[in-house]
Amino acid sequence: QVQLVESGGGLVQAGGSLRLSCAASGSTFGINTMAWYRQAPGKQRELVATITSGTTTNYADSVKGRFTISRDNAKNTVHLQMNSLKPEDTAVYYCYADYILRWLSPSWGQGTQVTVSS
Predict the structure, then answer these.
(1) Which long-range contacts (CB under 8 A, 24 or more apart) does 47-51 make?
(2) What letter would DSSP give residue 118?
(3) Which residues contact 71 (CB under 8 A, 6 or more apart)?
(4) Looking at residue 102, what is its pLDDT?
(5) In a 10 Å sphere around its CB, with 0-12 CB exposed, 13-18 middle and 19+ buried, how is residue 36 labelled?
(6) DSSP string across 15-75
(7) What pLDDT is attached to residue 57?
(8) What average pLDDT does the structure give for the chain?
(9) What is the pLDDT of residues 10-50, one digit of tens each?
């Protein structure tokens, strides 16, 4: 079982930057893709960015060019650098990890709040 703990959320003005981090602990061997999702009040959880174990990345159209996902496999961490933040980026951001053994359920962090003021 893998535990994911996010950090780095907070309150920032529009146009500002934040860096989210997620540390994985426990049985981290076999982690495949890691990702960041977000959920705004009254909305469904949506995918923000993904990164594979081979560091191939993918982004939601709404964050392309502003957010960068990165990963340190040796430290079992994943980061999300968020620049040019907009009020519509306000949400709880969740870290996600799935496994090479596809029958294992993915793991989720507890979430970290990001609030962007206009």
Answers:
(1) 48/80, 48/93, 49/80, 51/78
(2) -
(3) 34, 51, 55, 77, 78, 79
(4) 87
(5) buried
(6) T--EEEEEEEEES-TTEEEEEEEEE-TTS--EEEEEE-TT--EEE-TTTTTTEEEEEETTT
(7) 98
(8) 95
(9) 999 999 999 999 999 988 888 999 999 999 999 999 999 99
